[in-house]
Design brief:
With 368 residues, the protein is an all-alpha fold. The protein has one domain. Helix content is 70%, strand content 0%. It is built from 13 helices and no strands. Helix 5 runs parallel beside helix 13. The longest helix is centred in the N-terminal third of the chain and has 31 residues. It is elongated, with a radius of gyration of 21 Å.
Length: 368
């Protein structure tokens, strides 16, 4: 029982770090354009993240039951495995936050989960759900597993963010070519408040749900292992039955509320280092640019969340900002900064997977 509550606590710590790490990506543009102060932007993002996190649960279901086959993990070891995965993701979040690099909390968590699950299954690759093809007549995104829910979206979503922002900004340049700069700045200053709220809401629909999935997965494992047998009636809500073939896991309301509030608290704590990188160092932004980047990024996030794809807010908003900058001129993007960011992206999955695997091996070495 103690280990289960440790999983929940560490999951909430991860969610908190996700709040100040990834939410900084969601509000960086509105700060960079000086439409809002950092404090005002954080308040806006806190509220919209809380609302977004309560909507839907497709991403949470993917994390809980769509990436790892729990049948290959000893039920009494599942909680330990999850702690290792979360610690690996938290370490990477803090490391990249310290250096001001907008890396992906989503991929840090997925990498840690896959690496620790592989070690917990003693190297049996069948423990990882790599690819389940969609049924006949279904679209490709209705498949499940790491390939459909992680790898393909990881490649497609940043590309969509870039070209959607590029196209939207090009259209705005055409429509506003005869408008006065001061008028454009004032009008899009207001419109960027709306796009920033849209971005925060979309971030909540995607990111907060990852921790919901981890907690649900831990409760399913604890229920299967009999850890929750004999609980008093007032704690019976913790028991979570595993899904039957063809069904998806139902995420309890209390898990949604707990994760939503924790991410909102993390958001309220700030994240200035990453805001500075995205809002100031990557591209010089005006309100019209921020509006285009946020609208494009939020649209991609909302669409992928509806399909249960735990994509990276970081990747999408960063490439959207790059798309906005490139629509002005190619040299408007500060490519040396982009190279630093890309290295963080490339390293996230393998480093966190390796850390998760290593920590589980250390636990095995000490006799668990």
């Amino acid at each position: 029982m103690l280990l289960l509550f440790t999983v929940i606590l560490v999951a909430l710590i991860f969610n908190f770090t996700n709040g100040f790490h990834d939410t900084a990506n969601a509000i960086a543009t509105v700060v960079g354009t000086k439409v809002l102060t950092p404090r005002q932007a954080i308040v806006l993002a806190t509220i919209t993240n809380l609302l977004g996190a309560m909507v839907g649960a497709a991403v949470a279901k993917t994390i809980a039951s769509g990436l790892v086959d729990s049948n290959f993990i000893a039920p009494d070891f599942a909680s330990t495995m999850l702690v290792c995965a979360l610690v690996a993701a938290i370490f990477w979040n803090l490391l990249t936050w310290y250096f001001g690099l907008p890396s992906s909390s989503s991929h840090a968590l997925i990498g840690g989960l896959v690496g620790s699950a592989l070690a917990a299954a003693h190297g049996n690759w069948s423990a990882i759900i790599w690819c389940k093809f969609p049924a006949a007549g279904q679209h490709w995104w209705m498949g499940s597993g790491v390939m459909y829910k992680v790898v393909i979206p990881m490649i497609i979503s940043p590309i969509l963010g870039f070209f959607l922002a590029f196209g939207l900004m090009t259209l705005l340049y055409f429509l506003l070519q005869n408008a006065r700069p001061l008028t454009v700045s004032r009008r899009f200053g207001f419109l960027q408040l709306l796009s920033s709220a849209y971005m925060g809401f979309s971030h909540g629909t995607n990111d907060a749900q990852k921790t919901m999935g981890i907690i649900a997965l831990a409760l399913v494992a604890a229920t299967k292992a009999g850890t929750l047998d004999g609980l008093p009636d007032w704690l019976s809500f913790l028991k979570t039955a595993d899904t039957l073939p063809g069904q998806t896991l139902v995420i309890a309301l209390w898990i949604k509320i707990l994760c939503s509030i924790t991410m909102a608290a993390g958001t309220a704590s700030g994240g200035w280092r990453i805001i500075k990188t995205l809002g100031h160092k990557l591209v010089k932004l005006q309100p019209v640019h921020g509006f285009a980047a946020e609208t494009a990024g939020a649209t991609v996030l909302l669409g992928t969340a509806a399909m249960g794809m735990p994509v990276s807010t970081t990747h999408v908003i960063t490439t959207a900002i790059m798309g906005v900058g490139a629509s002005k001129r190619w040299t408007a993007v500060k490519w040396p900064v982009v190279r630093r960011i890309l290295w963080a992206w490339v390293l996230t999955l393998p480093v966190c997977g390796g850390l998760g695997y290593l920590m589980v091996q250390v636990v095995h070495a000490f006799g668990h």
